[in-house]
Amino acid sequence: MYVAAVALALATSPGSGAAASQPTDRYIVVWVDSVDSERETDDFERAEKVRADFRYSHAIKGFAAALSSTHLAALSRNPKVKFVSPDREVHAIGSVPIAAGDSAPTGVRRIDAASATNANEASTVAVAVIDTGIQLTHPDLNAVAGKNCITSGASPNDDNGHGTHVSGTIGARNNGAGVIGVAPGSKVYAVKVLNGQGSGTWGQVICGIDWVTANAATLNIKVASMSLGGSGSNDNNCGNSNFDALHQAICRSTAAGVTYVVAAGNSAVNFAASAPASYPEALTVTAMSDSDGIAGGTGGAPTCRTGETDDAFATFSSFAVAAAEQNHTVAAPGVCIGSTWLSSGYTTISGTSMATPHVSGTVALCLGSGGLAGPCSGMTPAQIVQKIRTDAQAHATAANGFNGDPLHPVSGKYFGSLAFAGGYAAPDTTPPVISSASAATTSTTAKITWTTNEPASSQVEYWTDPAVVTSTPITDTSPRVTNHSVTIGGLSPSTTYGYRVKSVDGSSNPAQSVDSTFTTTAASSYDLLVSGAANRSSASRLQASSVSGTIYVFVSPETGVTQARFYLDDPQRVGSPIKIEGAAPWDFAGTASNGNANPYSTTALANGQHAITVAIDKSGGGTDLVTATFTVANGSPPPPPPSAFSLQVSSSASRSGPSGLDGKTVAGTIYVFVNPATGVTQARFYLDDPQRVGSPFRTEGLAPWDFAGTASNGSANPYSTTALANGQHTITVAIDKSGGGTDLVSASFTVLN
User: Fold this and answer.
1) In 24, 193, 397, 510, which residue has its Cα 20 to 30 A from 389's Cα atom?
2) CA dist 573 to 501, 565, 568, 587, 625, Å?
3) pLDDT in tens, 588-614
4) Which residue in the list 162, 247, 328, 484 is annotated as catalytic?
5) Helix, strand or coil for residue 728?
6) What's the mean pLDDT in 616-628?
7) Which residues have C-beta within 8 Å of that of residue 337, sequence separation ≥ 6?
8) CB under 8 Å to 13, separation ≥6 — which residues?
């Protein structure tokens, strides 16, 4: 494996045998598992005069760097090398940061066209909005005059608001004000076929379609958004059998390469009797309701319209029944949609008219964005219609859909799967911007903080000798963050270190700060001691000690101190002190009235390493920080007695098809509950706290006993496992029984998102 990888690398690196300054490519070097990764990387850097971009010591042992064929040859002779592989480009689905002051509406987020912080880039194609026109001067729109089919020769400026609203959902700019669209900044052509009251004729609509067809090639119009409709039907012959000119016009326009996205209608009926919704050449959009931009049905009722619920089909939306209509139907958010409006303003309205532009923007993204061709590029409109539907179906799960989609069907009504724009964004090639890097030091630690303009992972390199660089582990990989904090330990007092910070965004774009320095503080004259006796006799240093049972921890010496603030497992003192002592002696657990130290039971802590940090305010001025790291090594607590109760997990809010949570691997949204539900008066749930040291994650006082609570309709509330890191976790529940006593039940499970 190693030989093949290096052979490939040499074949792609010109100038075999050249000096180290020859052209280089990027590679990942993996050391064998038995070596000291940091040491081997240090040695290689010194010997070959290269600098690793990233060092790895957890998921793998090795480093990534730009290497020449000479470097590769040296590695091929090193028996400690496991293999070398090219550092190929990988692209997560790309986006750009949302400008400060802008926001992504719930509908745009619900179809994964944006997150709370990132948005797509403009489409490479233009969208014709066949509607009431567009406010051409709206600062949040890239709107261009197309055709006015109401008043010949006049501007297609909007005098109703409907077309401007549609346009904002498609492409409102990411410009730091208002809202963003599905494909922000995309060019939208105003094709006015409806008057100021929002009405028109098929003749006027066909006028607009005709203009689009004539100009599609020269103006790069590949999508037409039609949030309008009337009576009509499909003859399966492009209107030639039932003499439907509108149908024929749309067929001719699709033949010219324009994909039509049309509204299903707001009559809550079968749209087979509506046009253009019934035409199989168009992609017909039904409306669903979403109030918070995320799946799960926990957002509450939409605030702008009564009678709707979160993550359910919109009660007004028309729908498909027969297979002929189902085969060109997809759903999108259409309730309480905020978008652009007249007078350069914004408003919130509902309708399948509001759902349609979500899909129009999605089609535009699929054709291309960010200057690059998308997966729909080169496809015919018929192929695009089916790709949008197929991708929506493939993305749908029981957890991310809505009541009324094919996975949660409603008898006699087909609304289609929710459109998915998340798969069509252009690759992100822009690295994050690092700013505000700073260091806060103690005598042995340095907390390095910085920010990035988009979510990214964190790493710090530091040194006293620039030729010997030490790297911290890469953290914040899932989820990535914008506020970064990495703590370096084991430093020497009164020593100056060089450092740099590094971040990588979700598309593997790296960034690195300029080199800076920090200096650790002088060592403190104070120390933390531990004793097994309340009178503090026979004390020893707490640092590096192994303790169990009851201990007594205190500051020594006790003179020259005005106050001591103790922190447990919080060396950076982010939270509140566990104890503040204002008088000597300075005891971690406080001092009894007889002057003895109060006891602290280590059984409150999990076995393993812990730290006590004390901020010592000195009578002569200033504050010393002293940290002692120690190991708790208590014997295993006796297991709780057997219980008739267990923790069950289901993928359904109705708790159907449950299985035991213990030993289970889970992902996405889960529903956890106590079984059986009888004989219980209260259930206190603890997450990753088997000793129940902290407060319960959830206290339930009524059956059924759900970990995340119970909805008003009796369904279990969902819990998203994306809130947890991948790996093993526990849920422990204290079950107070109606017959008296408390059972403890714990389940260990693995999160694998």
Assistant:
1) 193
2) 22, 10, 9, 18, 10
3) 999 999 999 999 999 889 889 999 999
4) 162
5) strand
6) 92
7) 105, 106, 107, 165, 169, 348, 349, 350, 354, 355
8) 22, 23, 24, 25, 68, 69, 72
Nearest to 650, CA basis, from 631, 677, 673: 673
pLDDT digits over 553-574, tens only? 999 999 999 999 999 998 878 8
Active site residue 353: yes
Query: 245-255 and 202-219 helices cross at what angle (nearest 10)?
Result: 10
Residue with tokens 């700019």: 173
Distance from C-alpha of 150 to C-alpha of 629, rounded to nearest angstrom: 78
**Residue 679: CB partners within 8 Å, gap ≥ 6?**
737, 738, 739
The SS3 of residue 630 is: strand
pTM of the model: 0.54
The residue annotated as part of the active site, out of 102, 131, 428, 624, is 131
Q: For residue 279, give both structure tokens.
A: 């035409």
**298: three-class secondary structure by DSSP:** coil
State yes or no: is 165 an active-site residue. Answer: no
| CA separation for the pair 66, 170 (Å, rounded) | 42
User: Minimal CA–CA distance to 112: which of 125, 131, 93, 97?
Assistant: 93
Is 131 annotated in the active site?
yes
SS3 81: strand
C-alpha distance from residue 634 to each of 129, 445, 607, 628, 730 (Å): 70, 28, 6, 19, 20
Given 227, 289, 353, 513, the catalytic residue: 353
Of residues 130, 99, 110, 346, the one with CA closest to residue 225:
130
Asked if 458 and 474 touch (Cβ cutoff 8 Å), the reply is: yes
